[in-house]
Backbone:
């Protein structure tokens, strides 16, 4: 068969498949920018692979992120793509195309802001890492496959240990000064970042040395001894920074220091998420939502016989935990209950494949240190005690994962929450994953907690206590995480806040704060995205469903078909809003939906 015949056959088969396909078969998204966005994502991924793996440790970024070569190349990359975007005729684009244009522009601006922020952070830590340029020159040179002069390289590597010895003495003298008189680089959070970077630089130097060692006789002869000395010196220096400057044990897993980014960086992140609020306004919003939750919690507490002392009611609910070995069955039953609830009320389309394909696994004890509750998607990851935990840890885990707490969160992780969301994201406008935001990802799952509360899903006071615990928890996330990044709360104060104002077990509160500030997979605004994204979707639901313009099912299906983009752009798509090229976010969603 000729190539032309094969092409004709292929096109015929595609046409037949489309004709026979079910009505809900996803379309291409209808956007002129899709090929451009897919190309950007591919090019960005290529550069990420070229500049190597990121090493994260102790709150520090990778050496690859610090590389002058990488920083210059990424700045050029963003500038080139911005020019390509600017060359497009915005006025001739369709509505999906305009939305993608604005999302793409927003992404490029955010990437550049993050590159600039990284540059400021590198400048802060440089006095503690004067050897960084030397190591990065070696690393970048190897990436470019430049010729290595072993004798010269050995002299450079040998100098690292000597520089570190004198640097440690200098820092020890500075530490004798009063705390307020010390230089900026000796601040606890800056030194913690520097310790992480020292570990990352050590890993990069090892990668550089391993490339030539044993393969190049002269390289090995010259570098083996200097490298071992430098490696040892870097390891000891990272420990020195943590223990002497930061004031924590180097290998203590309970340490939480974090990396507060400051108000300007928060505002940049909020702009990237299309949230036209200041951090102070968001804290005020969270306090209002918390007050509503507390009032409702007192109502449930009275029903349970504890009067207004809702913390006692909360303690009673925690004691309803199931015995070890029974948690998976509980989660399975709660998942089925939520599925039946949304299906019976025709709230959303649930494809049969999504119903049957979710899975379950148990969370490791190590992961539970960071996340003491559920994680979810097509697999729900269940947090419950293991035999390796202490007696107190076991009790805290069981109490924090009791049936009534779980009643409100299994639906968050599975259907209609993350499992259904991810299922649909793979099928509708998947190219928009480049613009994914936790305000839609987590906001979608949290929104269902809000909606099902309004729909009467919680029929007992115990279930209402469980649901309200989580809603208060999400309000608290906004308050403590923004306050931390504004420099107004320490990690320990955040833990105390969760214990006293939400009723968390202390270990669970510590895990929550550690996840917020130490887990590199979460951005600085991730924890505030749950409640704020949920409130955005609730406001949009009020505008389109409660007004009678759309049914519940049509609304929820339409949101999922936009993929996980900033919710203001979902709103623009569903309402058909006219989008100018100079569009700026202005939707004050909370004021629009404040009345209950």
Residues:
């Amino acid at each position: 068969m000729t190539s032309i015949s094969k092409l004709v056959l292929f096109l015929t088969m595609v046409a037949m498949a489309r004709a026979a396909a079910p009505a809900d078969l996803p379309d291409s998204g209808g956007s002129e920018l899709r090929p451009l966005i897919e190309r950007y994502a591919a090019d960005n991924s290529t550069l990420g692979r070229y500049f190597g793996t990121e090493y994260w440790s102790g709150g520090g970024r990778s050496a690859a992120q610090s590389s002058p070569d990488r920083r210059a190349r990424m700045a050029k990359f963003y500038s080139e793509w911005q020019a390509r975007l600017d060359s497009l005729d915005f006025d001739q684009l369709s509505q999906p195309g305009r939305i993608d244009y604005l999302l793409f522009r927003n992404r490029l601006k955010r990437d550049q802001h993050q590159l600039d922020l990284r540059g400021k952070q590198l400048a802060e830590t440089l006095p503690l890492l004067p050897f960084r340029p030397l190591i990065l020159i070696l690393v970048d040179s190897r990436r470019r496959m430049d010729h290595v002069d072993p004798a010269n390289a050995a002299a450079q590597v040998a100098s690292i240990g000597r520089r570190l010895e004198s640097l440690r003495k200098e820092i020890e003298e500075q530490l004798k000064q009063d705390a307020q008189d010390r230089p900026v680089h000796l601040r606890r959070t800056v030194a913690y970042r520097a310790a992480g970077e020292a570990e990352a630089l050590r890993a990069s130097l090892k990668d550089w040395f391993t490339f030539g060692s044993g393969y190049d006789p002269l390289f090995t002869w010259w570098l083996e001894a200097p490298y071992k000395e430098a490696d040892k010196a870097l390891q000891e220096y990272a420990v020195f920074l943590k223990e002497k400057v930061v004031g924590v044990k180097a290998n203590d897993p309970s340490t939480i220091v974090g990396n507060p980014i400051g108000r300007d960086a928060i505002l940049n992140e909020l702009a990237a998420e299309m949230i036209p609020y200041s951090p102070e306004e968001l804290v005020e919003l969270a306090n209002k939502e918390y007050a509503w939750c507390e009032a409702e919690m007192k109502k449930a507490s009275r029903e349970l016989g504890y009067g207004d002392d809702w913390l006692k009611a909360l303690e009673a609910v925690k004691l309803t935990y199931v015995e070890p070995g029974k948690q998976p069955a509980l989660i399975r039953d709660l998942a089925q209950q939520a599925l039946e609830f949304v299906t019976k009320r025709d709230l959303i389309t649930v494809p049969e494949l999504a119903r049957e394909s979710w899975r379950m696994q148990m969370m490791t004890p190590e992961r539970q240190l960071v996340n003491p509750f559920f994680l979810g998607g097509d697999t729900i990851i269940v947090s419950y005690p293991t035999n390796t935990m202490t007696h107190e840890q076991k009790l805290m885990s069981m109490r924090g994962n009791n049936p009534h707490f779980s009643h409100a969160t299994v639906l968050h992780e599975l259907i209609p929450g993350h499992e259904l969301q991810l299922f649909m994201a793979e099928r509708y406008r998947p190219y928009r994953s480049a613009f994914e935001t936790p305000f839609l990802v987590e906001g979608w799952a949290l929104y269902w907690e809000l909606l099902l509360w309004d729909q009467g899903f919680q029929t007992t006071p115990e279930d209402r206590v469980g649901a309200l615990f989580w809603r208060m928890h999400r309000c608290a996330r906004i308050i403590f995480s923004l306050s931390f990044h504004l420099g107004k709360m320490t990690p320990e104060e955040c833990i105390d806040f969760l214990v006293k104002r939400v009723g968390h077990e202390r270990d669970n509160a510590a895990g929550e704060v550690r996840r917020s500030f130490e887990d590199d997979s979460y951005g600085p605004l991730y924890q505030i995205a749950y409640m704020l994204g949920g409130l955005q979707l609730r406001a949009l639901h009020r505008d389109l469903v409660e007004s009678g313009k759309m049914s519940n099912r049509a609304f929820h299906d339409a949101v999922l078909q936009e993929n996980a983009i900033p919710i203001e752009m979902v709103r623009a798509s569903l309402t058909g809003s006219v989008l100018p090229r100079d569009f700026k976010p202005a939707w004050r969603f909370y004021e629009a939906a404040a009345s209950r």
Notes: Residues 95-125 form the longest helix (31 residues). The longest strand covers residues 359-362. The two ends are 67 Å apart (CA to CA). Confidence is low (pLDDT under 50) at residues 1-26, 53-61.
